[in-house]
Amino acid sequence: QKEVEQNSGPLSVPEGAIASLNCTYSDRGSQSFFWYRQYSGKSPELIMSIYSNGDKEDGRFTAQLNKASQYVSLLIRDSQPSDSATYLCAVLGFSNTGNQFYFGTGTSLTVIP
Amino acid sequence: DVKVTQSSRYLVKRTGEKVFLECVQDMDHENMFWYRQDPGLGLRLIYFSYDVKMKEKGDIPEGYSVSREKKERFSLILESASTNQTSMYLCATGQGTTNYGYTFGSGTRLTVV
Question: In which band, very low, low, confident or very high, does the pLDDT at B44 lie, cut at 50, 70 and 90?
């Protein structure tokens, strides 16, 4: 069973601060990693993908990947109340039936005005 | 943008009823997935399909079946609904390699009474 672990939180940060969300995964062969944001009562939406070691920046979001440590993180700079949501880490894994994503249980983030 | 449409946003069904959840996508995505999402348990894969008339069991297929007669439509069937199937059901689609992540439908919140 491929596992994706996230701290469930809740994580609270003040407005304008940096929020740091972390994820570890068990399948060393995984190559593709994604972050989804899910507002309460809504479905997940893809916000970041990362495939190579290092950092990938998109606006206020930075994804960081360290394959040797099997660790992926999401940094949100200048956090806004609208960033309050649950963030899901997803890892693309390979099974004998094909590719599929393995999701963490999510980290709940609250940005305090 | 890919649109993934789930036929119902909210459903209330009685124990023992046969329930159909429909998912339709308007892009030519090969892969379609059904998940259920419960607090503390995250997203759990029920069934998936990589092609028409093809289906594979996910992690929790018991009590469910699926149908994919056309590429754009993937149906989840609860053969005899039970109260422990009360959940948020999410359909997702992806391209062949799924390297671009999934797109989720808006979800169906099913309550079985």
Answer: very high
**3-state class (DSSP) for residue A82:** helix
Question: Cα separation of A81 and A68, whole Å?
Answer: 34
d(CA A90, CA A100): 10
**CB burial string A28-62: b at 16+ within 10 A, e below:** eebebbbbbbbeeeebbebbbbbeeeeeeeeeebb
Q: Are B98 and B111 in contact (CB under 8 A)?
A: no
Number of CB pairs, chain A paired with chain B, less than 8 A apart: 49
Contact A56, A63 (CB under 8 A): yes
Residue B21 CA to residue B76 CA, distance in Å, equals 5
Per the CB < 8 A criterion, the answer to whether B9 and B91 are in contact is no
Does A58 touch chain B if contact means CB atoms closer than 8 Å?
A: no
Helix (H, G, I), strand (E, B) or coil at A83: helix
Within 8 A of A46 by CB-CB distance, chain B residues are 101-103
Average confidence (pLDDT) over B66-77? 96
CA distance B61 to A47: 29
Distance CA A89, CA B74 (A): 25
